[in-house]
Amino acid sequence: MLKLVFFLIFLCPLCFMNNMYWMVQILLFFISFVFLLMNNFMNYWSEISYFLGLDMLSYGLILLSLWICSLMLLASESVNKYNNYKNLFLLNVILLLLLLILTFSSMNLFMFYLFFESSLIPTLFLILGWGYQPERLQAGIYLLFYTLLVSLPMLIGIFYLMNYMGTMNFYLMNNYMFNFDLLYFCMLCAFLVKMPMFLVHLWLPK
């Protein structure tokens, strides 16, 4: 997993070079095809490093993130054509992709929460800087406050699980069976806002 992370880190300086928009996009498509060949189709963890690893679910989500960010650059040709701060746009997309990959490949529950919430920052900059609707400032504020307020119960639930089980590693949590409906709802709320579900979707149409 670290080879994918370091690839994206070393891709960041290319964002500030002239006429590198298409090169970054081609490299993202290239790494998505390389990642497609990395899977050994095991049902258990693979590509394990310190706190990063892959199972079949996280493999599919990372592949989806790579494809969506590559298609974002392909669909945002007007940013490159009219030079609408294209270097910062590339950097935001790369940082968002890096945080999503770290989120989906994390094997620790707290690191998952940390990277999941950190992905809000480049998303907010993309909405505020390159959104097409005039209400994009209001949409960014809605997204920020919805996500931060609703993710607090998830953080409390994570610390409760740490106190209850003594670990935050996913592969050690398989040994525990617990049936707490309130805890399940608290940890689900953060994902319902990002989906976004009805009543917490007001930032999406703006």
From TrEMBL:
EC number: 7.1.1.2
GO terms, biological process: ATP synthesis coupled electron transport; electron transport coupled proton transport
Residue ranges of the TM segments: 7-36, 56-75, 87-104, 110-132, 139-162, 182-204
Primary site of residence: mitochondrion
Claim: rRNA-binding is one of the keywords in the record: no
Catalytic reactions of this protein: a ubiquinone + NADH + 5 H(+)(in) = a ubiquinol + NAD(+) + 4 H(+)(out)
Keyword Membrane: yes
Compartment(s) where it occurs, according to its Swiss-Prot or TrEMBL record: Mitochondrion membrane
Ranges where the NADH:quinone oxidoreductase/Mrp antiporter transmembrane domain occurs: 106-206
Lineage top rank: taxon: Eukaryota
InterPro entries: NADH4_N (IPR000260), NADH_UbQ_OxRdtase (IPR003918), ND/Mrp_TM (IPR001750)
GO cellular component: mitochondrial membrane
Keywords from the UniProt entry: Electron transport, Membrane, Mitochondrion, NAD, Respiratory chain, Translocase, Transmembrane, Transmembrane helix, Transport, Ubiquinone
Domain NADH:ubiquinone oxidoreductase chain 4 N-terminal stretches: 1-103
Topological type in the membrane: Multi-pass membrane protein
Pfam families: Oxidored_q5_N (PF01059), Proton_antipo_M (PF00361)
EC class: translocase
GO MF terms, alphabetically ordered: NADH dehydrogenase (ubiquinone) activity; NADH dehydrogenase activity; ubiquinone binding
Family: Belongs to the complex I subunit 4 family.
Function (record text): Core subunit of the mitochondrial membrane respiratory chain NADH dehydrogenase (Complex I) that is believed to belong to the minimal assembly required for catalysis. Complex I functions in the transfer of electrons from NADH to the respiratory chain. The immediate electron acceptor for the enzyme is believed to be ubiquinone.
Name the record gives this protein: NADH-ubiquinone oxidoreductase chain 4
